[in-house]
Amino acid sequence: MPRRRVDIAVAPPFRERVSRAWLRRVVLCALDVALPGQACQVSVALTDDDTVKDLNRRYRGLDEATDVLSFAPGHAGPWEGPGEAPLGVDGKQPFVLPEEEPRLLGEVVVSYPQAARQAPSAGHSVERELALLVAHGVLHLLGHDHHGAAQEVRMRELQQRVLEHFFQSEES
Hints:
This protein is α/β, with parallel strands linked by helices. The chain has a single domain (4-171), classed as Collagenase (Catalytic Domain). The protein has 5 helices and 4 strands. The protein has helices at 20-34, 49-60, 112-122, 126-141, 149-171; strands at residues 4-10, 40-47, 68-71, 103-111.
């Protein structure tokens, strides 16, 4: 079993609606599907629209709320496995982790209010929308994207596999 560290932060207004343990299981399921057998670490923050809007403005230059953001430390392509070091803050020097630490993938930030608004139009529960957004964010950390048609199809397929696997395991 690969060593995986998953850190979860849930903003106070949403702590009674979503458990950290549930979010952690979603992340681990996404990693099982998209990165089987690899050790890694990832963080997820579930927060409000204002926080996500501020991050979107500061880091993407878009002054608008969005549903999910992914921040990979200096990584701009598909994950290649152990030994690949993310770039440091200056974009040049690698950020070095101790050998015993699993590779840092990055952080996923999700807006709970945006997920709650999107769920009805998508025809599913807020829970399913949150799982979808977390899976989407994790896939971005692994280098998947949806800018081209082929990339979008691949990412949707992976997201669907994650959701099927996750909700089947939740039922058992």
